[in-house]
Amino acid sequence: MNARLISSIGGKSSRSGELLAQKLKAEGIVNTQVLQAIARSPRHIFVPEILAHKAYDNTALPIGQGQTISQPYIVAKMSELLIADGIPDSILEIGTGSGYQTSILAQLTEKVFSVERIKSLQWQAKRKLRSIDLHNIAMKHGDGWQGWSSKGPFQAIIVTAAAVSVPQALLEQLTDGGRLVIPVGGQTQILKIITRAGNEYIEKQIEAVKFVPLVPGDLL
Ligand code: SAH
User: Which sites are catalytic (predicted)?
Assistant: First the structure.
């Protein structure tokens, strides 16, 4: 996987990507695979052209349709939490958005399944991920509250929008020992890791976060 991406962007990480990875390391990201993926991922292609000069800042940015590309620190933090117990065979991502988080996950595991409710965002993300030769990603235009049961169960699930409560379908689609990384809340949100142990779910709170909402219902 890495080799494909590297060859597509000139055989090495970019200077901007490397600087961003260094910044995130200074802010407490320790996983070297995650830092390497950040260094190699061309974030500028995932932001609107007019904001390209801010692409390697450690900030969230608007991507249209009222949505945002997540802050690099939180992308790295959630990725690192997701693989802390070992590399999962596959990852389910809810909220494809720009596809930037997807590009990081695709460098960390064999296969990424990503669900997005806004068709136009999904379509753009798909094109961008192909353009950098990441082909180990399957996408679904669907409601993330339902997960993607036919592809599960998953050792790792990441949700990149805030849910008012933890979606039951996602808990059910975890393998025994699997982990779900999810921001939960409304105005105030907290990032949680939920680990499945048989029919029990062990919850750990990580830190306060700010995400767009995981919208219930209709697709766009
Ligand atoms: N990881 C993305 C974050 C995008 S913002 C990035 O860094 O670009 C969150 C995304 O979740 C938005 O694209 C939004 O459309 C999507 N989303 C919100 N509710 C959803 C739902 N119920 N099902 C699927 N996707 C949803």
Answer: 70
